[in-house]
Amino acid sequence: xxxxxxxxxxxxxxxxxxxxxxxxxxxxxxxxxxxxxxxxxxxxxxxxxxxxxxxxxxxxxxxxxxxxxx
Length: 70
What we know:
2 domains; 2 helices; single chain; 0% strand
């Protein structure tokens, strides 16, 4: 019958969803932030590099107070 496919469908779905949930935990451990910044566009990459240069942490909110008065 058609319902005999449900157990194998559930197993395949669970196995394929593991990497997505594992990345959440890996980013939380390694970056101390569960979400990655999107760096697909050139502007996003420039902002990532700028934030890394100014504060050392691209996930920290930056404002004018992070720029030195030199």
